[in-house]
Amino acid sequence: MAKAKTRTAVLISGRGSNLAALIAAADNADFPAEIALVLSDRADAKGLDLAREHGIPIAAIDKARCGTKAEIEMQFDTALRDAGIELICLAGFMRILSAHFVESWRDRILNIHPSLLPLFPGLKTHERALEAGVRIHGATVHFVRAEMDAGPIVAQGAVPVLDGDTPEHLADRVLGIEHRIYPLALDLVASGRAKVQGERVIIDSTTMAPDAALLSPPD
Ligand code: GRF
User: Number of structural domains, the chain?
Assistant: First the structure.
């Protein structure tokens, strides 16, 4: 009997283009994860419409109305556990999760960050990459730890930084690679081929090429 798909929740706060990439990947019958819940901390997040269009259950928890950080996280936790969620993907989720929440889902939360971590954690990554004059920039999918934008790296994708780039142009180029590495990382983790060992991710070399989790365009 085929292995059951990993029940995955995607947590968003806004546009949801990475959510769209994950939904598209999960539409494939062979994909090892299903998007079983989309959770947002903003009732007006655009990505919720996408979830509705695909018939994916949603839960929106409005931070303006819902009390303390601990109370809000309790509501997230209840929604996730009630839906039988096994793995969480943060995709543009603009809320820093508490150490308590992160620990209670240890090694079961992924995040996508628009830089080649550990370079440029935090906000305004594209502006900072341009200011630093780096020639290569990109995106990272990593397991979440209590420290912001830190944790074992699953997949990275690189793009060139071109002379004359604006933060917007660079952001567009990076977003293109985000939409490729997030499905790849979810595939690796949900299928059990990428596992945390110590504080690194080890990819099963019997089934994957050693560079399977590194993308650099062009295709
Ligand atoms: C992406 O750039 C992601 O890396 C960052 O927030 C943005 C979310 O975009 N964490 P979207 O909502 O997935 O379109």
Answer: 2
Q: What is the CATH number of the domain that holds 15?
A: 3.40.50.170
Q: Are residues 87 and 3 in the same domain?
A: yes
Q: How many Cα atoms within 13 Å fall on the side-chain side of residue 218?
A: 0
Domain of residue 166 covers: 113-219
Residues carrying an active site annotation = 113
Instruction: Clarify whether residues 4 and 100 are in a common domain.
Output: yes
User: How far away, in angstroms, is 92 Cα from ligand 1 center?
Assistant: 4
Q: What is the pLDDT of residues 151-192, one digit of tens each?
A: 999 999 999 999 999 999 999 999 999 999 999 999 999 999
Residue 15 CA to ligand 1 center (angstroms) comes to: 8
Q: Give the separation between CA 80 and CA 85, rounded to whole angstroms.
A: 5
Task: Tell me which of 175, 177, 181 to substitute to probe ligand 1's pocket, judged by most ligand atoms within 8 Å of the beta carbon.
Answer: 175
**Which residues 6+ apart lie within 8 Å of 86 measured at CB?**
6, 7, 8, 108
For a mutational test of ligand 1's pocket, the pick from 172, 178, 180, i.e. the residue with the most ligand atoms closer than 8 A to its C-beta, is: 178
Nearest CA, atom 9, ligand 1: 92
**How would you classify the pairing of strands 214-215 and 200-203?**
unpaired
Residue pair 136/116 in contact by the 8 Å Cβ criterion: yes
